[in-house]
Amino acid sequence: MKPWLLGLPLVVIGAATLLLGWSGAPDHPDDQHTISIHFSRFEPEVLTVQAGRPVTFELVNQDPIEHEWIVGDDQVHKAHRFGTEPYHDEVPTEVTLKPFETNATVVTFDMPGEYAFICHLPGHEAYGMRGIIKVVK
What we know:
By secondary structure, the chain is α+β, with helices and mostly antiparallel strands. Helices cover 21% and strands 37% of the residues. It contains four helices and nine strands, in the order H-H-E-E-E-E-E-H-E-E-E-H-E. Strands 3-9-8-5-6 form a five-stranded mixed beta sheet, covered by helices on one side. Strands 2-1-4-7 form a four-stranded mixed beta sheet, with no helix packed on it. The protein is globular, with a radius of gyration of 20 Å.
């Protein structure tokens, strides 16, 4: 095989990458967010994402106790404040995290607005375990 042919596949792949716009990274930097929980606080407490785009949230519980991450409007939080669901694992906006557990969930917000995320375990919200997701067009 001629030496100049060895680099040809890389050139073809590189050209296709440029033409298709694929860089190996997410299309938009706000498509992935990590939310850490430490000392019963969310960090960061405020995030901004775009409406209509799937967003992956990696939730990292660094505490030796269980927490939950519930996202929604006032009606959702009212239901969870006094609800009896001990564990959440079926709805993308409702996640329970065991001590030192990391979990990921994918959420698409259809409408712009502000959505609170809160831990509704007894006393956690009163302690300040809440944050805001700002959804923009």
